[in-house]
Design brief:
Blueprint: H1 3-6, E1 10-14, H2 19-30, E2 34-39, H3 48-51, E3 59-62, H4 68-78, E4 82-85, H5 92-97, H6 99-120, E5 124-129, H7 155-174, H8 180-183, E6 185-192, E7 194-196, H9 206-216, E8 220-222, E9 228-229, E10 231-233, H10 235-248, E11 259-262, E12 270-271, H11 272-283, E13 288-290, H12 308-314, H13 322-338, H14 343-363
Helix pairs in contact: 2-14, 4-6, 6-7, 9-11, 11-13, 13-14
């Protein structure tokens, strides 16, 4: 999968020290890419980046994405073929504590990266990773489409909506399809659902909180058991980002420049309570209770994504269903707690999951490559 797109290519990941960025770096390494990361230090202890020993496998550049001059220097030094922009302030509850910082990182940080691409005059394919929470949430029963209005009740969601508008502005103003021959940039944004997977150690996320409680023998407190989310294993949106990057790398990649949703099928959306119960079965023990705090900040109760565009135009579709996604995630953490928590074991667990995901995709007849789009890679 993707080998003809990324083998021997230089790929820059912002936010490579984070959860999703770490998984993306590992996958790209398996695809034969030269991976360069630009990020602040890992945001949690432990972290996937450190336990996997990723600093030994990628070119590890440390810096703040809001430092445009620093990003320009990195781009001019490594000359990436692809950029995956994942660096962000990622937590809804944290955004209530630091709304200005959330907007600063998610909006101004993204603009800094895009401006750096302009100033470095770097021709490349760019995927900016956003969130399903960028849409104005009306608590609809059906999934949001890419052309639905942006909005956001909480600062995190609003910052992602503003980020999407900023990306579209830069695409239209500085990287238009009509002038691709001059700037050489194909720019898209990707909106994923609620991502789960091994190696996420962030606070106030349901599965990391759950495995910590299960491992300690504590009762898990669940804030919103009836809330509905588009849960998906981390490899699902990453496969979407990689498929989108492959499409952007085509000679007419401007047709993929725009916004894209990557989430589960409409029939595979479940509540928080469903997630926790499934995790308990996979772990083999554990318990939970509702821990509603009437003074807690607002969080959306219902959120779905429509993925018709990705299915129809990219040939992308989910591989692992809800049960398998939860099972794989819980097994990763179980192995982590039982085996030596060092680089070979943790890195190997990630590689094993990637291989299993690719095998499952192959069995379903799913394969993303430049041939999928009937094109050859741009030189």
């Amino acid at each position: 999968m993707f080998t003809d797109s990324y083998c021997d290519k230089v790929v820059l990941i912002t936010g490579h020290t984070g959860f999703k960025g770490g998984w993306l770096a590992i996958w790209l390494l398996q695809l034969g890419a030269r991976v360069v990361g630009y990020s602040l230090d890992p945001p949690t202890t432990p972290s996937l980046f450190e336990t996997c020993g990723l600093a030994n496998h990628v070119q590890d550049l440390r810096g703040d994405i809001r430092d445009t001059a620093g990003v320009v220097r990195a781009l001019r030094d490594v000359r990436p073929d692809f950029i995956f922009h994942l660096a962000a302030a990622p937590l809804v509850l944290r955004s209530y504590e630091d709304p200005i910082g959330t907007f600063d990182v998610n909006v101004m940080g993204t603009l800094s990266v895009l401006q750096a691409i302009r100033e470095a005059r770097q021709a490349c394919s760019v995927v900016v990773v956003s969130s399903d929470k960028c849409y104005r949430n009306c608590e609809w029963d059906y999934g949001y489409r890419e052309n639905d209005p942006f909005g956001g009740h909480d600062p995190y969601s609003a910052s992602k909506a503003a980020m999407e508008i900023a990306v579209a502005s830069y695409r239209d103003s500085f990287f238009p399809a009509s002038a691709t021959a001059q700037h050489g940039v194909h720019l898209a944004s990707a909106r994923a659902g609620n991502v789960i997977g091994g190696g996420d150690w962030a606070p106030d996320r349901i599965l990391p909180d759950a495995v910590r409680a299960f491992h300690a023998g504590d009762v898990l407190k669940v804030r919103s058991p009836e809330a509905i989310r588009p849960w998906q294993h981390v490899l699902e949106p990453l496969s979407g980002y990689l498929a989108l990057g492959a499409g952007l790398a085509c000679p007419d990649g401007e047709r993929f420049a725009g916004g894209w949703n990557f989430g589960p099928l409409a029939s595979d959306v479940f509540t928080v309570a469903d997630l926790v119960d499934t995790a308990i079965r996979a772990w083999g023990s554990g318990s939970w209770q509702t821990g509603i705090n009437s003074a807690a900040p607002h969080e959306a109760a219902l959120l779905r994504l429509c993925i018709d565009k990705a299915i129809a135009q990219l040939g992308w579709r989910p591989v692992w269903d809800f049960e398998e996604a939860v099972r794989r995630t819980v097994l990763w953490y179980s192995d982590y707690f039982q085996q030596p928590q060092d680089e070979p074991g943790v890195f190997g667990s990630c590689v094993s999951d990637i291989a299993a995901y690719e095998a499952a995709a192959s069995q379903k007849g799913i394969a993303w490559s430049l041939q999928t789009f009937g094109m050859a890679a741009k030189s």
